[in-house]
Design a protein that fits this description.
With about 90 residues, the protein is mostly helical. The chain is built from three helices and no strands.
């Protein structure tokens, strides 16, 4: 049995596991994760789905951050223009 695990473990090095699976939550289970990923199709499917979701989340967060920066910029610009309009109105009265 130990020999089979050794073969699976050595073979694993040639399989590509997505970087999303290498995180703090799974750190204590790194070897088990690698073996299960190779040996269990259901586990592999769950892992692959998890990686897809993590990538989509990261993409959304990047867009959100970019849009949030734009929002802050436009908020600032509109406040400056509001002040300028008020100043103009006050001087014209």
């Amino acid at each position: 049995m130990g020999y089979i695990v050794f073969i699976i473990h050595k073979t694993f090095k040639f399989m590509s596991i997505s970087k999303e699976l290498y995180n703090v939550k799974f750190e204590d289970y790194k070897e088990s994760l690698q073996i299960l990923y190779m040996a269990d199709d259901r586990f592999k499917s769950i892992c692959n789905e998890y990686c897809i979701i993590k990538k989509k989340k990261a993409k959304f967060e990047k867009k959100f951050e970019k849009n949030f920066q734009k929002k802050l910029k436009y908020d600032s610009m509109s406040e400056e223009l509001e002040e300028e309009i008020l100043i103009y109105l006050i001087r014209s009265s």
